[in-house]
Amino acid sequence: MNDKEETMSDQDFTDIGRRDTERHLLVAVDGSENSKRAVMYLADFFGDDKDVFITILSIIPEPSEDYFATDKKRNEWLADQEAAMNSTLAEYKEILLGAGFQENQIELRLVIRQCESIGDAILEEQAKLRCCIVVVGRRGLSHNEEFIFGSTSNKILHHATNCAVMVVE
Fold first, then answer.
1. What 8-state DSSP symbol labels residue 140?
2. Alpha carbon distance 35, 145 (integer Å)
3. CA angle 28, 29, 30 (to 5 degrees)
4. N or C: which end of the chain has fewer CB within 10 A?
5. How far apart are CA 56 and CA 26, in angstroms?
6. DSSP-derived secondary structure for 34-62
């Protein structure tokens, strides 16, 4: 083995930041049964792996300023959405803990933001976190519904870069 090969090998296995990035999974959830199935899939598949880190992400699209009659109504709606999703995130975390994950392997992330596309928002979070795999549940839209409304999983599948994508049905 020459010096160049040894350097590449050492670099591949000693770059801790790179190794952590390669074991960091992002599961994007919305409270649906398909999201729960995605979390359960990760629990089954990676539950015994102590080197895997999972971020459970939920994005609540912030409504436009004129969507509600008053700021009070808007803020109440946002608070209700946030409370409901925090409860769901806690439930999903319990699923992972029950499968053998440790507290330090799981991060819950709730983002409230304006976004034209949930898929784009998920991909932006993936890029920030540098996760190696994005996992989403598929809603099960028909081809016509998918054409009209768009599909978050389809968008992620076709536009993700620097990561793998798992779509759980």
1. -
2. 19
3. 140
4. N
5. 6
6. HHHHHHHHHHHHHTT-TT-EEEEEEEEEP
List, in sequence order, every beta strand (DSSP E) within 114-163. Answer: 133-137
Nearest to residue 162, comparing CAs of 8, 21, 53?
21
Look-up of token digits 């409901």 = 84
Over the stretch 91-131, which tens digit does the pLDDT of each residue have? Answer: 999 999 999 999 999 999 999 999 888 999 999 999 999 99
The tokens of 27 are what? 């599961």
Q: Is 93 helix (H, G, I), strand (E, B) or coil?
A: helix
Task: Provide φ and ψ at 60, rounded to 5°.
Answer: -105, 115
Domain 19-168 architecture: 3-Layer(aba) Sandwich (3.40)
Residue whose C-alpha is closest to residue 155's, from 111, 113, 117, 127: 117
Q: What is the pTM of this model?
A: 0.81
Give the domain ranges of the chain: 19-168
Can you tell me the distance from the alpha carbon of 56 to that of 29, in angstroms, rounded to the nearest whole number?
7
pLDDT in tens, 53-74: 999 999 999 988 889 999 999 9
- Number of Cβ atoms within 10 Å of the Cβ of 36: 18
Q: Please tell me the number of Cα atoms within 13 Å of 28 on its side-chain side.
A: 28
